[in-house]
Inverse folding.
């Protein structure tokens, strides 16, 4: 696992659930499917998407009372820099 993180150069502070690769891009964290579909459709020159932490209301983190914490999915460019990709 640590080798994968190092190889794709994800900031250690951004770790969430284990990263997966989708069509050559990594997806780290509880990233919504709609963001992954957008990544695949737009094909930006990027390494992948990351959602740090486990915000309530993100996929897999739903709660019975419907609470949703605002969160931002970030895109990681080829230099390892993160910028906002989607806000939820």
């Amino acid at each position: 696992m640590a080798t994968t993180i190092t190889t794709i150069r994800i900031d250690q502070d951004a770790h969430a659930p284990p990263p997966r690769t989708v069509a050559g891009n990594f997806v780290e964290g509880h990233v919504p499917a709609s963001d992954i579909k957008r990544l695949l459709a737009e094909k930006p020159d990027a390494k992948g998407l990351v959602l740090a932490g486990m915000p309530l209301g993100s996929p897999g983190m739903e709660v019975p009372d419907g609470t949703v914490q605002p969160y931002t999915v970030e895109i990681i460019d080829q230099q390892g820099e993160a910028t906002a990709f989607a806000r939820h």
Q: What stands out?
A: The first helix runs from residue 2 to 8. Helices lie at 2-8, 33-42. Residues 2-87 form one domain.
